[in-house]
């Protein structure tokens, strides 16, 4: 899918959010400025969260009170091969909510159970190519 504006990307992600359910883990791949946080913000809105959503680059995790809870990770600052438990959360706890993980490549092969993979490619200043892969029977 190719989107020509941030608003179009936001609308797609907000609609996509309505397909998500408790326990889903979404990996968001893309270079700096690709739109991972725009998609995260739209997913949160689509799930009914009305608060502020920003990238948790310095805190690594923001937990948004919602039903189900939303866990928003930004692993950009982490280096080397890590496991999601190294950032202080039990994967079993994450099954209680919906997780959005920006920079999942920092986990290398330590996939905590991604159910959806979103890859964002920058085509131009305003255009983005987005691919969505659903894993398993999600």
Question: What distinguishing features does this structure have?
Answer:
alpha/beta; single chain; 7-stranded mixed sheet; 3 helices; 138 residues; 7 strands
Task: Outline the structure in words.
Strand 3 (61-64) and strand 4 form a beta hairpin. Helix content is 20%, strand content 25%. The two termini are 20 Å apart. The chain has helices at residues 6-17, 36-46, 91-94; strands spanning 2-3, 25-29, 61-64, 70-74, 98-102, 116-122, 128-134. Helix 1 (6-17) crosses helix 2 (36-46). It contains 3 helices and 7 strands. Strands 1-7-6-2-5-4-3 form a 7-stranded mixed beta sheet. The mean pLDDT is 88. It has 138 residues and is of the alpha/beta class.
What's the arrangement of secondary structure elements?
Elements: E1 2-3, H1 6-17, E2 25-29, H2 36-46, E3 61-64, E4 70-74, H3 91-94, E5 98-102, E6 116-122, E7 128-134
Parallel strand pairs: 2-5, 2-6, 4-5
Antiparallel strand pairs: 1-7, 3-4, 6-7
Helix pairs in contact: 1-2
Counted by DSSP, the helix tally is: 3
In the predicted model, the low-confidence regions spanning at least 5 consecutive residues are none
Helix content: 10-25%
Q: Order of SSEs, N→C?
A: EHEHEEHEEE
Q: Could you say which overall geometry the principal axes of the C-alpha atoms support?
A: globular
Average residue pLDDT = 88
Ends distance: 20 Å
Rg, nearest Å: 14 Å
Characterize the main sheet.
Answer: 7 strands, mixed
- Find the count of extended strands (DSSP E, 2+ residues): 7
